[in-house]
Amino acid sequence: MSAIKYKNNNLFVENASVKNVASKYKTPFYLYSNSNIVENYKSFYGNFKKVDPLICFSVKANSNIKILKILKKMGSGADVVSGGELLKALKSGIKPNKIVFSGVGKTEEELKLAIKKNILLINIESENEAALINKLASKMRGKTSIGIRLNPDINAPTHKKISTGKAEDKFGLSKKNLIEFCRNIKKFENLKLEAISVHIGSQILNENPYKKTLKVLAEIISKTKINFKFVDLGGGFGITYKKGDRKIILKDYSNLVEKFMKKYNCKIIFEPGRTIVGNSAILVAKIQYLKKGANKIFAIINAGMNDFMRPALYDAIHNIFPIIKNKKKIKGTLEFVGPICETTCKFIKYKNYQKINQSDYVAIMDVGAYGASLSSNYNTKPLIAELLVSKKKITIIRRKQDLLKLINN
User: Fold this and answer.
1) How does the average pLDDT of the chain come out, rounded?
2) 248-292 residue pLDDT tens
3) Which residues contact 89 (CB under 8 A, 6 or more apart)?
4) Which CA distances in Å does 385 have to 29, 236, 344?
């Protein structure tokens, strides 16, 4: 059950009234629930308890070090896609032997860092990357453990911009190329091939593509004749952002993963991100102006696409709730938009939304994943604050960026 809910028509995050928080801290800001993060992690692990997977949280979903520390205490590892994310994971206390490094374009400097830190796996995505790691490892520390990422050519039902498992996507090796690479692995004397990995996309609400992926992996493992120590099944599990979204059912998939693990005698790795932190946060904003348009009313809030990019980037739907509910209605269409000088800086439309006024506070819901981590300084705006609620206690986990420091950099 979510810790973000209404109590007597007032929105609360755990035991903190959002209205009270907004009166103390300048909006806009991200407001997280510690409880939601912990419970989501427990729930995900609980679905796969019999598998006892290594959960490597996808740091790109949310890279705040305080949040990574919460997950580290839960036993989480990290899936990173840059040197910066690797350093953040290490700074949060996550051990190197629980970190996997993914991504198609790792630089030489990033690979040197990963080799030096002796992380669990570098998941390679091309033979040229393998050759570079082999060369670097020979000069640095000898054998380096790698995984090899498969592109299974599976079309998961999700937005085209977050699909990663189709043949035309840039990620991983094709079945043919992966098998060929495995047959020639001995020429890479400084690589220790320990894993096969796969990731088919993000915000997936149907378990069937994952089941298909297991079948493709079984076929590939049979053909390579390699006993992989780890099988990294990636992440991408979706959450319900809007009414009518199907909730992914992991029980049947979990049973198949358990059978797969026993058959191939491997350790399973998962890389969830959104499903752990997606519903853990709201973005609290103030209505700056109400403006009458030709056929609708614009509610111009003080948070923009620079603060929260998903609607502009992915056409993502995120509900916007008033901090205080009432029963009065605005007739016609109301559209929530932001201040950035782009038409795409808009969020959501409603028919007959509740009565709101200028200076009222609202909350953009379910912004814990790819919210703060995608934010930018576009239009020379400072990065906004991030706050964490634990019961009633409020902790600043990222201060609002200082405007003078921003413009003097």
Assistant:
1) 92
2) 888 888 999 999 999 999 999 999 999 999 999 999 999 999 999
3) 59, 68, 78, 80, 99
4) 5, 27, 23
Sorted by where each starts, the structural domains of the chain and their CATH numbers stand as: 4-32+279-408 (2.40.37.10), 35-277 (3.20.20.10)
The tens digit of pLDDT for each residue in 177-214 reads 889 989 999 899 999 999 999 988 778 888 888 888 89
Catalytic residue, candidates 56, 182, 266, 341:
341
What 3-state class would DSSP assign to 15? coil
For 85-92, the CB contacts below 8 A with 24+ separation are 85/59, 85/60, 86/110, 86/113, 86/114, 86/117, 86/119, 87/113, 88/59, 88/63, 89/59, 90/117, 91/65, 92/65, 92/68
C-alpha to C-alpha distance for 220 and 178, rounded to whole angstroms: 8
- Single out the residue of 110, 85, 150, 176 nearest to residue 373, CA to CA: 85
Give me the mean pLDDT over the 372-391 stretch: 97
Cα–Cα distance for residue pair 190/356, rounded to 1 Å: 64
User: Encoding tokens for residue 172?
Assistant: 């991983």
Q: Does 341 qualify as catalytic in the annotation?
A: yes
Cα dist from 210 to 160, 173, 301, whole Å: 17, 18, 39
